[in-house]
Amino acid sequence: MSQVSRRSLLQLMGATAMATGVLGGTTLAAFADDSELVIGGSLPLTGVFGFAGVAIEKAMQDYAKIINDQGGIAGRKVRLAYEDTAYKPDTSVAVFNKLTSQNDIHLYYGDSTAFAKTISLELARADRILMGGASFATELNDPVKHPNIFIPGPDYSEMFSILLEHIAREKPGAKVVFVCSDSEFGRDPIEPGAARAKALGLDMGDVIITPPGSVDVSTEVLKLRRARPDYVIFHGYIKAPLPEFMSQAKQLGLETKFMGTFWSMDSSIWDDVGDVADGFMGIMPYRYYYDTEPAPMLDKIREMRGEYQATGYMQGMISAMILLESAKRVLEDGQELTGKNLKAAMNTIKDFDTGGIIGVPFSMAGNSIPVGRVYQYSAAEKKMNPVSDWINVGG
Amino acid sequence: MNDDLLFFTEVTLAGLGSGALLALTALAFVLIYKATRVINLAVSEILMLGGYLFFTFAASLSLPWWGALPLAILGGGAVGAIVERGLIRPMLGESAISVFMVTVGLGSVLVGLVEAFWGTDPKSLPNFIANTPVFFGEAYVSRKILVAFIAATVVIGIFLILFRFWRGGVALRATASDQAAAYSCGINVPGVFSIAWIIGCATAAGAGVLLGAIGGISPVMGVFGLSALVVVIVGGLDSLLGALVGGLALGVIQAWVSSFLGGEYVSPITFGILILTLVIRPYGLFGTHEIERL
């Protein structure tokens, strides 16, 4: 075996490093493709949020098709590049790193609050990407702290504000109790919600925190029986343990009205619950697939997909719409697709018409769309019906 | 009864009910560990699978609950048999951590299969337990929780009797104490392993049906198994009585903590109890104190 001297080894390493640099540079240059716009995605296609991820992916694909059929964005075809994260932040970050190193990505969809908070600094540092996502966390609604992120609807505190405004209009001075899961998600709107309730002249009762993963809620229902609130707002859950909560409360003769936030509002998750779910209310930032009010984009969706599409679908559609509208404004102004330019373009969105998915034109001065409407579930119709006008809680 | 005493009584009864569910799930861990010395972390996912099997038989195939329930339990047992014969028995003689990791992997596989077959949406089971409340005097108890309590105590009671008097139960205890000695006495040790896995997994599937009846089913409902693991460690990994007492005690403590301190204190106190037990009595309250001699 021939001996390799230290000098020749160093030469070999140096040459390898140079070759890698050159090839790497070639790769970097090669993936900057002006013929397409890639929306990257860390999507939760499996796991606890899988039900939403699947719907979001479908919506983003559909919107990309709609745009591509119209000729794309400034002549660029839209393409999705995504991978499943199983709703795990470390996987989301790994997917982000992989996708952004393989594609020229300026638009991104993130799957969770944890991922958004983790990647926010990197987004600001790299200044290449505008990111929306599945999170409505109040903390993300801070343009200074999270300059490259937006929320495709009201944040959780704004959702509480919308519900509380509805309560204050329906029953002034009503007693309200919050029931929240013991998680970052669940605790998010408690303090601002309680402050808002007081400001609206409502009687703010207890805040009941349920332990993570709790199934039986008997003890919490007993607390509720003592408090006897007019309204309960649930937050931090998708479905369980809400049906059991409402069932036991009805058994005890409570006449409390129950409300939820966006991720509990898909009507299909209530279909198999039956009468217990009848009358359940909540905040929806978007129209439902089956809404009958005039909405050309809903007509288009119904034409593309003949069966019911979940609320996650509408969220994904609005996210793609905002991402691509921002990119369109940047490209039409002849600017470079940087994070700052994209965000600035997004903030110029004023009185924007979503084709009826959001029932009123909206503006995006900050990181969120502070608009929503209260819907109520009808067990007989297996539908959510609107019970309020569109409420805007933006400044 | 004054209001505060009534509230305390109701909270305690609710705690006993949810504790019974913990005990039933803990029983699945104990049965398998007792015979095979394997901590089967996939019990949580078999519990979830039991809920989905019941859903399929009762909702999709429209069988009555009394037909769907035994089928779901049998399904859980069948999974236990397949897993023991296909995955665990070939691992005999391997280190405990290797077998433990197989069960961790099995859990992920089961979650993936459930998501593939039934989707990721949370679902509700057909209502087979009446919703009308039960009152002991003035004290309210949810009927579902009462049913869970009765089912869990009856099942654990049956197992306690079987282990004491049934030939198979004695064989299982003999295998648990000394496998080589059990072999030499003519006990079919691999058969005992299979039986333990079948019964353990069937119990977990049954617990999954009860749990699903209360909170609905979803691919992540197996998280409940983690609380049951605390019960097992506190009660003693190889003690049926430990599972019952530990489950009921933890259920009551969690109910008290949730009601009088707040739900946010439940996890710290639960896992605080776990740590304290491991420090003071590492073999659990009722577990076998094994002395290892070098």
Automatic annotation (TrEMBL), chain A:
The chain crosses the membrane at residues 12-31, 37-56. Signal peptide: none annotated. It comes from the Bacteria. Residues 38-360 form the Leucine-binding protein domain. Gene3D superfamilies: 3.40.50.2300. Keywords: Membrane, Signal, Transmembrane, Transmembrane helix. It holds the Pfam family Peripla_BP_6. Belongs to the leucine-binding protein family. This is Amino acid ABC transporter substrate-binding protein. It comes from Falsigemmobacter faecalis.
From TrEMBL, chain B:
Keywords: Amino-acid transport, Cell membrane, Membrane, Transmembrane, Transmembrane helix, Transport. It is found in: Cell membrane. It is a multi-pass membrane protein. One of its GO terms (molecular function) is transmembrane transporter activity. It comes from the Bacteria. Signal peptide: none annotated. GO terms for biological process: amino acid transport. The keyword Lyase does not apply. Its main location: membrane. GO terms for cellular component: plasma membrane. The chain crosses the membrane at residues 6-31, 38-59, 65-83, 95-118, 145-166, 187-207, 213-233, 265-286. Belongs to the binding-protein-dependent transport system permease family. LivHM subfamily. PANTHER family: ABC TRANSPORTER PERMEASE PROTEIN, BRANCHED-CHAIN AMINO ACID TRANSPORT SYSTEM PERMEASE PROTEIN LIVH. This is Branched-chain amino acid ABC transporter permease. It comes from Falsigemmobacter faecalis.
